[in-house]
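**User:** My hope is that you can spare some time for a protein that puzzles me. As I understand it, each token names a local backbone shape. I would be glad if you read both lines and explained how they fit together. The protein I mean follows directly.
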Amino acid sequence: MAETSSPQFLMACNPLSTASGVICVIILVLNLLLVFEIPCGYHGEQKVYGSSYKWSILFVAITQSIGVLVGTVAPVFRCFSVLSFKLHNKWNMTHFMAIKVEKYWTQKLIEWKQSPIRFLSSPRSRTLAYNSKGIILSLCIRLQQIIVILCKVISFIPTVILILFVYCWNSLKVRLVTQSVIFKTDNIDEGLSNYVLKIHDEVELSEKTLTQISNSMSSFILKAEKEQSRDLLDLLEKSTGFKGVETFDTDHVQPLLPFESVNSWSLPIVTLTCIAICLPNINKDTIKRLLRSVGEGLSYTNIVEESLNCEKEYVNIRKAILILWNEVEHKCKWLNKALQKDDFSGKTATEILKWFSERAKEIVREINRGEMVENAPKELIAANSMYRIAETILRRDASNAVPITKKQLFALLNGMIADIFSACFTNIPHVITVKCQESVIEKREAGVKDAAKVFW
């Protein structure tokens, strides 16, 4: 279970989570007692506390208690979350008797203590600094051990109270309720316990814990199932293989840029879509379905590209493509040029492709000065892609005896888009593995959600 960014899914939770909740509750109770005691501390004009703030000290205490109350909410909820899972675990007396400090609590301090000192040149100074460092860190290690032991002892308080309460409640139910209740747990795969992170090996997983972890993952998959796009599936059915990946671009067309620009899955898809939606004599509903399917597909290609291409140049091109696609989808524009069908009515498919090719060359000439090697603007990236794709299709059409029609061009563009999507989605198994093995805890939950989305 890669969904370990939520602390309640740790099998043996950090004792600091439970202890912090108990400590916060004690501090809150003491603050509330102080608030109720202050009015009783004054008798007429006599100041029992000798404070010159008089009655204003009451408002100071109330304000302080409000801050303590707000700060107590999160630790208390975290404590209840931990206790709800501990309640369903299989407990024995070893949990209460083994008050020990595990190695990971002091491992880093021990490493610092044993590490050499290199910034002093004098051997005598180095020896003195090393011994002083050892004494200080030894005290820190002892203090850390004491704190951990105290937290474990404090964490037992609500656990024991909860166990006693549940025991009494179950005993009462046995006396009052004669009909036994049978819980159905046949659908629980006990093999899932091998994929749950355990801090303490002696703590056994309960069936309820497995159920909640499994339900958490299933909710991501069900959400992805509900959000699936039928339009995207219809588009992918038009793919006949990976031929479109080979034919949308060719090395025989020289790039417009003086430097080599990195490519991606999303860029040719957006470029091909721009040409497709401006073709006249194409049904509006067909164009709308194409836009919806491409928009849905780009959400998946973005996940694939984020997982496989993390270099700076790929990050820049993804940002440029995102801006470019937003203009196409919401404004029906390509580099500030409206893709209205009326502007292209009366033109043949070949003339439309030539217009895009010439327009791309003009944009590159206006912007490029030969020195932009890194962080090329989105206009250069989009124009270079458009020129190469348009010229590739024009060269292919020139070899045909009959010029390509608009409907044939639209079908060709749809097939290329579907083929590129299909080729990109072959990386999904590897992407799921990468997303579920995210080492950064803060990114792990988002990675699992992305994995569930592309999985479905």
In short: The two ends are 17 Å apart (CA to CA). The longest strand covers residues 42-43. The CA atoms of residues 231 and 290 lie 7 Å apart.
